[in-house]
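Re-running the complex after MR caught last week's input typo. The corrected sequence lines follow. Everything else is unchanged.
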Amino acid sequence: MERLPGFRDFYPEPLPPSEPWSADLRQYIFDKWRTVSRRYGFREYDGPPLETLELFTTKSGAEIVGQLYNFTDKGDRAISLRPEMTPTLARMVAARERSYKKPIKWFALPQLFRYERQQKGRLREHFQFNADIVGETDPSADAELAALLIDSLRAFGLTAADFVLRLSSRNAWHDFFVARQGAPEAEYEFYQAIDKLEREEPAKTEEKLRRIGFSLEEVRAFIEQGTPTRELAGVMENLAARGLGEFVKIDYRVIRGLAYYTGIVFEAFDRKGEFRAIAGGGRYDNLLKLISGGRVDLPALGFGMGDVVLGELLKARGLVPSFTTGLDVFCLIEAEELRADSLRLIQSLREAGFATDFSLMPAKADKQFKRAQELGVSWIVRLVPNTEGTLEARVKNLQSREEKIYPPQEVASLLRNGVK
Amino acid sequence: MERLPGFRDFYPEPLPPSEPWSADLRQYIFDKWRTVSRRYGFREYDGPPLETLELFTTKSGAEIVGQLYNFTDKGDRAISLRPEMTPTLARMVAARERSYKKPIKWFALPQLFRYERQQKGRLREHFQFNADIVGETDPSADAELAALLIDSLRAFGLTAADFVLRLSSRNAWHDFFVARQGAPEAEYEFYQAIDKLEREEPAKTEEKLRRIGFSLEEVRAFIEQGTPTRELAGVMENLAARGLGEFVKIDYRVIRGLAYYTGIVFEAFDRKGEFRAIAGGGRYDNLLKLISGGRVDLPALGFGMGDVVLGELLKARGLVPSFTTGLDVFCLIEAEELRADSLRLIQSLREAGFATDFSLMPAKADKQFKRAQELGVSWIVRLVPNTEGTLEARVKNLQSREEKIYPPQEVASLLRNGVK
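Corrected-run output:
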């Protein structure tokens, strides 16, 4: 029986051949995301992996359904596995916003799902770090969020030579569009054309733009000029004050495909341009009102950063650490009559916080020793009867090769004082 | 728009009224499960939340479908959200067992899903700590697993006065069944009757047993006597050697409903009997062979412990800690001309590992101070111009009420040395 196409199993390291994703790497990524979020004062939340289909179509329109892992449940509800976290966040905040001081700074690490029929070999799930700020219109919030994004990537050892955050603004493009007399009904079409600028043939973009009264030339000139809006200048200044100026640049080619962005938008890319966007986000000041049916009207902004692109980038840059078993001690049991006392010793080590393993079954001492080495432990402990007929614990430090003798009941506390 | 019935949102603490589950409590539980598992040398793994329906029906029979969150995907595959982790574990181990030394000791913290149409108000998902050992037939593996289960509960502050692990054995019941000439085709029916013994009217159980040639009296006498099998005696001895004897007892009323258990089975209960089983598991030596179509034949055993019953028990016993924001420092910005320098200071604190927050917008100093207190920070830091025209950092320890003055660029390292 096989796993479903587009899904990953997460095995422990060292990985079997042809299993590229380990549970250790996933946990390593999650730990960094959590640590940096907490440093920034963001609090963790989560929602269900399943939501009503309506939650997603309300936000993104009926055309989203073609990309969803959606179905009808046994209670005849139209439901879907979540393709993104923002609608859940908006629903949760709208339901309970009175309980939280503004601005709300929250993060989540949800698994997200998409089902695109044609995409062979492509993953249908990934984990995505989501961070959002709700209740603040000032660009200082955009800067705080951008700084979190930058520091989240730096936490993995990525530098300004590895990635850049490209900042843009829907407002800048809106002003451009209005100043050149664009027809309001063509505005979203215009954004869509800008969004595809880098990925499409110029002739095709040109044709799209011409149809709604624009030229590729004037669009390119606007991008080239890249004059920051007041809000963008504020964000740039704020990030420079933090010492993060080298990680960011104005780039109006970024506009984000989704309809609901309302202000500053941004995407992080690897500098070499080898990968898809590492992260992306922006302001969505109208979404809470939409999701809550007008009941709650709060400005908001957020970003998403997926584990797949990030993991590929870390691998390519040699930034994935080598994972160990995490074991500290191996208790070697040289004779079965020592097992009961050895079990007591193992229990005391584990209770003292040492990750401790041993052979469940009788095995030759050299085989146990070999296993201890494979597991990468720091110490091997074994009980040996001494001449007085009592037991002593021999503790070997595998680094220094030194062996010391302790009373068995003192091993755990002695090791703890010596090392931790 | 509302969340689906039977699902939980996980908000940050302090919780809004009528939201009983927080992301903080969930993370607290996960952290303990992970920590204790690692101490025992268990490695983390995970699989997809969706699997083929066949994986679950192969293990549990077609009747399981009535309880599943199953559907047909856009590629016409019959699939299901996972109701339990063991089939995924069996699939993963069967696929890659050659890459791992035996015994394999793995754990996972999956979210599991069940859809039972009639169960109003009952949760349709929970998170479940799963730990399994694959590749060892000896009862020493059963003891190691039972010890992990016990220590996982002890990690939350639960004692032998709070819970007990009830140990039983399918083999004991099998021997009983065979010794009394039970008809082989009635064996599973017999186990099912034993499984319901505690929850059903005695008359009903008696009737069930009589139909297959047994009396309630002889069954009760066997339970009462509770003579441990050799394997159970081995497990009891092993746990006693670890000093865990008081957490466990032989109790033949436990038999586990599922068909696939083959040896020792067990369930952990709160001593007061207020809750459903906290955890349960046992040996399933034939499952890997079944799931792999005969390709891989390895003995295995495991348990599951859900977050819902455990969380309810911890709440009832006053063992849920009070969660804080986790913030260390609040940077108070008394004038806007100090913002750029304050941002630099905040960045240095965050980079030094301090969880640091500040007001994104200009606010009165006393309002900022109040906010800092609400957030429960340890220090308030603010920049103040001194008489020489440079900036000094005033660092107030909110515990001692002491305020010290440092050069701004040294605050982070000084705080670190003073506290960590």
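None of the earlier attempt is carried over here. Chain A touches chain B through 100 residues (CB under 8 Å). The mean pLDDT of chain A is 95.
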